[in-house]
């Protein structure tokens, strides 16, 4: 399914000041990944997805990067993910999601609502009922301050020890929230994105709580 591309996306000239990027697990084409093909490194990994949605999800890298596991997760265990960068844009809301179909479907395993990513490390538990095998692990982010953007970095991972099938996992977990990528849904500057269906594992920040109303509704 995957093929090697020259550098179409790199050639579009979308270079922005540093925002934030997933630094562990190593996302596809990350400069932090010592095994990454140096000729394909995305040095603007901190840039958001394009507003027209043309490189949703994962900046398109799930389709044009050779699959290679960067880490393995055992269901039921706790792990960390880390973020690097200098512009947190006042925080916002983030999600951690998994895709078992190369990016067609992303299901949320943890949400950080408000204040994300004001810390550079978040712990999460890989749920016990995930499916086993190759998956894409995604960090997505809706910034509070600045342009209306969706940030998304994805990593190739392997999951073991899970009790679920892909179908059972996909029906049990909520869809990743998607906005600001030409899909008719937009976040609003200065207003916290509160996911309507954040899943079972939620970390609240910035004064938000389980009773905060979902916003925006799309
Ligand atoms: C996150 O987990 C990795 C892998 O277990 C570990 O090497 C790293 O030190 C951890 N990072 C932090 C900031 O704790």
- Report the CATH topology name: Coagulation Factor XIII, Chain A, domain 1
Radius of gyration: 16 Å
Number of domains: 1
Helix content: under 10%
Strand count, sense and barrel status of the largest sheet are:
6 strands, mixed
Structural class: mainly beta
Q: Which geometry do the CA atoms define?
A: globular
Q: Which strand-content bin applies to the residues?
A: 25-35%
The distinct bound ligands, ions and cofactors come out as:
2-acetamido-2-deoxy-beta-D-glucopyranose
**What is the tally of beta strands?**
9
Please provide the ordered H/E string of secondary-structure elements. EHEEEEEEEHE
Tally of alpha and pi helices: 2
Strand arrangement in the largest pleated sheet: 2-8-7-4-5-9
- Write down the overall mean pLDDT: 92
CATH class: Mainly Beta
**Uncertain ranges:** 1-17
For the terminal residues, how far apart are their CA atoms? 32 Å
CATH architectural category? Distorted Sandwich
Keywords: Signal
Organism: Aspergillus nanangensis
Protein name: Endoglucanase
Signal peptide: 1-18
């Amino acid at each position: 399914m995957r093929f090697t591309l020259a550098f179409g996306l790199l050639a579009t000239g979308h270079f922005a000041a540093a925002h934030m990027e997933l630094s562990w697990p190593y996302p596809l084409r990350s400069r932090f990944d010592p095994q990454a093909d140096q000729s394909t490194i995305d040095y603007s990994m901190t840039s958001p997805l394009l507003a027209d949605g043309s490189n949703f999800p994962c900046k398109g890298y799930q389709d044009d990067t050779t699959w290679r596991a960067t880490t393995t997760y055992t269901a039921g265990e706790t792990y960390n993910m880390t973020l690097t960068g200098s512009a947190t844009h006042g925080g916002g809301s983030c999600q951690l999601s998994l895709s078992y179909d190369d990016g067609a479907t992303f299901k949320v395993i943890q949400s950080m609502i408000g204040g994300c990513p004001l810390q550079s490390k978040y712990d999460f538990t890989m749920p016990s009922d995930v499916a086993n095998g190759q998956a894409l692990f995604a960090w997505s982010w809706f910034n509070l301050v600045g342009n209306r953007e969706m940030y998304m970095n994805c990593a190739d991972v392997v999951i073991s020890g899970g009790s679920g099938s892909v179908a059972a996992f996909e029906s049990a977990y909520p869809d990743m929230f998607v906005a600001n990528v030409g899909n008719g849904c937009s976040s609003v500057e200065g207003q916290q994105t509160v996911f309507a269906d954040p899943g079972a594992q939620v970390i609240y920040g910035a004064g938000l709580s389980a009773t905060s109303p979902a916003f925006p509704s799309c």
